């Protein structure tokens, strides 16, 4: 008679709190990123609904949390042993999306709080935090917190739309920054510095959504300008704005297949 195998029902690695502790020890940076992204989300909510905190304080805490996230991601993407004082390293540094958003936080640290400024970093933090939360829940067990799993699934299902909205916020923020500079809510150099951020996002190798959103906005503007009922002055203004943006756009590098 064959002996029974005591582990016959064991279909995977152990789950529960011990497995979570082991996961945290083995993935310290990823878990830290997850926690800081959750903090970014909470600070954004704290800015919109200042129940337990001052809204201005929550705004700058969200920017600092985004800066910390970007710095940790840069540490993962560019290890310390690869840092060097060379033009090649600087070019590589500014090719990283994390460098773009580290720069983003620095741009707005001395700017009057505005919800649109927090929108891109909130959406990126929400999307990435939701994705890693699923990893945490899987570590705890397949059936743990099904309500949280449902909410995470909804966020991931809308991931493409979330990235498009984040890209649109990056673009719409530029004329807002110009207006803020004119009325004294930020420095006069802020629009020029933010322009470089937008150009980096436009040429991003890992995230084409800003570039695609610019194309969609151009198509929408040209369709609107082609309508016969549109007044001539407004049509000319729209086409002039499209031409100005096209002149300011950097040449896009061929994207790898």
Describe this structure in words.
The protein is mainly alpha-helical. It contains eleven helices and no strands. Helix 3 (55-77) packs antiparallel against helix 5, helix 3 (55-77) packs across helix 6 (115-140) and helix 6 packs antiparallel against helix 8. The radius of gyration is 23 Å and the shape is globular. It comes from Danaus chrysippus.
Write the SSE topology:
Elements: H1 17-26, H2 28-48, H3 55-77, H4 87-93, H5 97-107, H6 115-140, H7 146-157, H8 159-183, H9 190-202, H10 209-225, H11 232-248
Helix pairs in contact: 2-3, 2-6, 3-5, 3-6, 5-9, 6-7, 6-8, 8-9, 8-10, 10-11
Quickly list its features.
transmembrane helix; PER33/POM33_regulator; 257 residues; (African queen) hypothetical protein; mainly alpha
DSSP helix fraction = over 70%
Class by helix and strand content?
mainly alpha
Distance linking N and C termini: 58 Å
Strand content: under 5%
Average pLDDT level: 85
Radius of gyration: 23 Å
Largest sheet: none
Basic shape? globular
Question: Low-confidence parts lasting 5 or more residues at pLDDT below 50?
Answer: 1-10
Helix-strand pattern, N to C? Answer: HHHHHHHHHHH
Count of DSSP helices?
11
Number of strands: 0
């Amino acid at each position: 008679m064959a002996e029974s195998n005591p582990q016959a029902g064991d279909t995977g690695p152990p789950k529960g709190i011990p497995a979570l502790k082991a996961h945290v020890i083995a993935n310290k940076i990823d878990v830290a990123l997850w926690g800081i992204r959750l903090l970014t989300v909470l600070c954004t909510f704290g800015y919109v609904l200042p129940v337990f905190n001052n809204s201005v304080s929550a705004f700058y805490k969200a920017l600092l949390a985004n800066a910390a996230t970007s710095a940790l991601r840069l540490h993962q993407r560019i290890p310390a042993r690869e840092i060097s004082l060379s033009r090649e390293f600087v070019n590589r540094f500014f090719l990283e999306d994390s460098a773009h958003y580290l720069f983003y936080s620095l741009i707005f640290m001395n700017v009057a709080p505005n919800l649109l400024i927090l929108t891109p970093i909130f959406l990126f933090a929400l999307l990435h935090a939701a994705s890693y939360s699923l990893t945490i829940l899987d570590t705890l067990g397949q059936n743990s917190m099904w309500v949280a799993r449902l909410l995470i699934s909804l966020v991931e299902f809308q991931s493409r739309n979330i990235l498009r909205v984040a890209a649109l916020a990056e673009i719409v923020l530029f004329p807002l920054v110009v207006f803020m500079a004119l009325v004294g809510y930020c420095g006069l150099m802020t629009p020029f510095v933010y322009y470089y951020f937008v150009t980096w996002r436009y040429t991003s190798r890992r995230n084409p959504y800003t570039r695609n959103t610019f194309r969609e906005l151009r198509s929408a503007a040209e369709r609107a300008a082609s309508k016969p009922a549109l007044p001539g002055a407004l049509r000319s203004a729209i086409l002039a704005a499209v031409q100005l943006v096209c002149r300011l756009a950097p040449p896009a590098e061929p994207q790898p297949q």
